[in-house]
């Protein structure tokens, strides 16, 4: 390994005169070589700089870690998601003018650092050879409005975190304190529009922007913040790492699909990780190093033969495949049945199941994907005892069943209110009674026809083995607070206090209304 020289606080000029600071990790000797660029709103120093900055530089790369606008000494004001395209391209132009630039570069980083890559990649030209992205996506709009429902906990915790970081150099709010401030805020009883006052002590512009500019991609606010339509134009070699419990996984897989549709061959790794899980740090470094050595230095010896590598929970095994979705998977419908049953047989004629959702006492969430929390599976039995959660369970399985791929629910529901949410969750029930969540999803219904509605809910994908003697269980509810904001039932503006209308919800399961969860049945693994 090579020795590394560190040059701190290099000013990088932007077109509007603002200067962004960057740290440069250079292999000793300073010779021309490929560059790895990281653009971050979370600072340049500490473990991140030491592990990735020095780690890549020891392999012979120049590494530039830049603080995004408005943070950690960089000038201007942070406008989350809004300036990364222009600032990123200006930074690439600056790189090309440096005497140590070797004529090619790559980009690296997780979460927001991955988004900054997508903001530049379609426009960076042929000198961009490789990208390594982790737990991220080319647009964050759909993760902020999951199925049309506002992802309250993730949005508030992130805006609280970045606000605390921007107040003074280095920041005093961390990934540990921001969730606690958020939890205190959501329990305060304030309207959604005032929760930033409770968590940060002042209005947070980006939080207020998210409330004002809903999930519709046609809203002009998202024009310069959504790069999903350009993903297929990226010619650089892309490797992605995600987690089954990460908030961005569904949209990361859409980016993978867009690259495949354009004829590219990206690599994909999905492990049993959540967003801030430290366990994906080591595979992130190993896979990115192999990727950069292959595509910047021509050393392909460390690349695995199959591009897709996934961890199957329940089986606790890694598998390699040629593509995602995994070839050979077929959809299998598990129907909601009378008497809280769940099975592959079609439902018999039966009355619908009913429950009442009270927005003043919203159905809580236990686990599930959130941005700054521990999203590993949790025992759901306490939640299943609530009267506002319907529970449907299969008989004990006679043999192992492996499900690998996309998951969705097709339900027939009727609600007494103009607006309501449909929350669906799949659990693995162990012989000792533990009911562990595997994946979930939500769909917000606004307006539409009176009467029974067919509702399709996209859940997080899964790769899971339900073992012999276990049962498959499905929850149907109308809330998951504070993961998603409570639905007032009136269809009024998201942030307003307003009146709350309890919703009487009916879930149908009959031959005419065959509600089901559609699971991806995989052939038995040898």
From TrEMBL:
The keyword Hydrolase applies. GO terms for molecular function: dipeptidyl-peptidase activity. InterPro entries: AB_hydrolase_fold (IPR029058), CocE/Ser_esterase (IPR005674), Galactose-bd-like_sf (IPR008979), Xaa-Pro-like_dom (IPR000383), Xaa-Pro_dipept_C (IPR013736). It comes from the Bacteria. Pfam families: Peptidase_S15, PepX_C. Residues 289-518 form the Xaa-Pro dipeptidyl-peptidase C-terminal domain. Keywords: Hydrolase. The keyword rRNA-binding does not apply. SUPFAM superfamilies: alpha/beta-Hydrolases, Galactose-binding domain-like. Residues 345-376 are annotated as: Disordered. This is CocE/NonD family hydrolase. It comes from Nonomuraea thailandensis.
């Amino acid at each position: 390994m090579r020795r590394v020289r560190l040059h701190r606080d290099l000013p990088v000029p932007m077109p509007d005169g603002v200067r962004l600071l960057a740290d440069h990790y250079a292999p000793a000797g300073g010779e021309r070589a490929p560059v790895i660029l990281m653009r971050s709103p979370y600072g340049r120093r500490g473990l991140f700089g030491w592990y990735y900055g020095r780690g890549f530089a020891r392999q012979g790369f120049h590494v530039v870690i830049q603080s995004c606008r408005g943070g950690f000494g960089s000038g201007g004001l942070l406008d989350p998601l809004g300036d990364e395209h222009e600032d990123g391209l200006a930074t690439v132009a600056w790189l090309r003018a440096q005497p140590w630039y070797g004529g090619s570069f790559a980009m690296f980083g997780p979460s927001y650092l991955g988004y900054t890559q997508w903001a530049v990649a379609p426009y960076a030209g042929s000198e961009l050879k490789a990208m390594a992205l982790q737990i991220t996506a080319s647009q964050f709009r759909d993760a902020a409005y999951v199925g049309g429902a506002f992802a309250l906990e993730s949005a508030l915790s992130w805006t609280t975190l970045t606000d605390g970081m921007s107040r003074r150099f280095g920041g005093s709010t961390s990934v540990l304190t921001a969730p606690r401030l958020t939890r205190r805020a959501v329990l305060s009883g304030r309207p959604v529009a005032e929760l930033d006052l409770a968590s940060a002590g002042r209005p947070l512009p980006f939080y207020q922007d998210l409330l004002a500019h809903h999930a519709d991609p046609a809203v002009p606010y998202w024009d310069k913040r959504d790069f999903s339509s350009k993903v297929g134009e990226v010619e650089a070699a892309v490797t992605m790492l995600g987690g089954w419990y990460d908030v961005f996984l569904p949209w990361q897989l859409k980016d993978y699909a867009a690259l495949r549709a354009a004829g590219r061959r990206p690599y994909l790794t999905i492990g049993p990780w959540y967003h801030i899980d430290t366990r994906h740090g080591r595979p992130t470094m190993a896979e990115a190093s192999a990727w950069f050595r292959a595509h910047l230095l021509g050393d392909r010896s460390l690349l695995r033969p199959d591009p897709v590598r996934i961890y199957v929970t329940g089986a606790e095994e890694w598998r390699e495949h040629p593509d995602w979705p995994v070839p050979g998977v077929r959809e299998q419908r598990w129907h909601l049945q009378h008497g809280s049953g769940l099975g592959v047989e079609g439902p018999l004629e039966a009355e619908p199941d009913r429950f009442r959702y009270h927005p003043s006492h919203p159905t809580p969430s236990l686990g599930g994907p959130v941005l700054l929390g521990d999203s590993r599976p949790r025992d759901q039995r306490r939640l299943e005892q609530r009267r506002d959660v319907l529970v449907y369970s299969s008989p004990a399985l006679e043999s192992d069943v492996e499900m690998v791929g996309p998951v969705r629910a097709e339900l027939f529901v009727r609600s007494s209110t103009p607006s309501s949410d449909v929350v669906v969750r799949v659990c693995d029930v162990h012989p000792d009674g533990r009911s562990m969540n595997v994946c979930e999803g939500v769909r917000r219904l606004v307006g539409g026809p009176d009467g029974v509605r067919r509702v399709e809910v996209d859940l997080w994908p899964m790769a899971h083995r339900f073992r012999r003697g276990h049962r498959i269980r499905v929850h149907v509810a109308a809330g998951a607070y504070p993961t998603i904001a409570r639905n007032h039932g009136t269809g009024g503006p998201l942030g307003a206090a307003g009146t709350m209308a309890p919703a009487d919800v009916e879930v149908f399961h009959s031959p005419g209304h065959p509600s089901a969860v559609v699971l991806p049945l995989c052939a038995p693994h040898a």
